[in-house]
């Protein structure tokens, strides 16, 4: 569903090749500055690469109009402006306009918005100005807009970073369920254990290059964790739950480059 061929986004990404298919929840990981946000923006079609190509459903995503992209890709950026002058409901409704060419929302659109607000626990806030919400509540509204969009592909840039642990776990479980229904979910994560626990596949970026791609327990080797994340750590299987977890023993001191 997404094919990336020798993608360059100067000066950050270099020669990225990957393919993502429906039914996957992919964790995109890497240190700060590795290129995660740049890659998501390129896949969403909002950043034009300096080389290579990105195809979405067989079409060059950067050559298609925004309405075409919006019906296929829901993209959540890492940061939202603090002064968005809309209520929560109005903001979430924006995710439906790609389904309403004349700009008039119908019953199906209202139902999709209601469902997304309910999932994010925001029904009681729908008439509240977005600017009056906390950072975590705004983030939940942004995720609700993506859910209301009902696109087959979701590209999410650290969507749970500012959320309480309840919503972090709840949203990850819901995203995994959406992947089980046939959607493609690609989510940038800083918490590596979340990738281990919830993602089918992990793609690791380091210094603008794709350095590992596979199942989380294949990717998170002690060698990669040491070289990329600068920690002494190793995965282990929890004897009580059977889940693969990370045991981190120490940070590796930084050395001048």
From TrEMBL:
Keyword vocabulary terms for this entry: ATP-binding, Nucleotide-binding, Translocase, Transport
SUPFAM superfamilies referenced in this protein's UniProt entry, alphabetically: P-loop containing nucleoside triphosphate hydrolases
UniProt GO molecular function: ATP binding; ATP hydrolysis activity
SMART domains (UniProt xref): AAA
Domain ABC transporter: 2-232
Cited CDD domains: ABC_Iron-Siderophores_B12_Hemin
Protein name: ABC transporter related protein
């Amino acid at each position: 569903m997404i094919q990336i061929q020798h993608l360059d986004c100067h000066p950050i990404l270099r020669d990225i090749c990957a393919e993502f298919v429906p039914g996957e929840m992919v964790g995109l990981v890497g240190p700060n500055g590795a290129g995660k946000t740049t890659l998501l923006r390129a896949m969403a079609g909002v950043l034009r690469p300096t080389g290579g190509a990105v195809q979405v459903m067989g079409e060059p995503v950067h050559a298609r109009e925004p309405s075409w992209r919006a019906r296929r890709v829901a993209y959540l950026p890492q940061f939202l402006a603090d002064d968005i002058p809309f209520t929560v409901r109005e903001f979430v409704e924006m995710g439906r306009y790609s389904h309403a060419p004349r700009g008039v929302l119908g019953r199906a659109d209202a139902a999709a918005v209601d469902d997304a607000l309910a999932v994010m626990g925001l029904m009681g806030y729908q008439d509240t100005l977005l600017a009056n919400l906390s950072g975590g509540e705004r983030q939940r509204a942004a995720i609700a807009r993506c859910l209301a969009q009902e696109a087959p592909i979701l590209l999410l840039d650290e969507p749970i970073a500012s959320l309480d642990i309840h919503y972090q776990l709840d949203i990850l479980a819901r995203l995994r369920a959406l992947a089980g229904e046939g959607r493609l979910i690609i989510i940038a994560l800083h918490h590596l254990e979340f990738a281990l626990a919830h993602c089918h596949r992990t793609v690791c970026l380091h210094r603008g290059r794709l350095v590992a791609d596979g199942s989380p327990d294949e990717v998170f080797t002690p060698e990669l964790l040491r070289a990329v994340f600068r920690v002494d750590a190793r995965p282990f299987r929890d004897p009580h739950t059977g889940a693969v977890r990370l045991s981190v023993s120490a940070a590796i001191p930084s050395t001048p480059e």
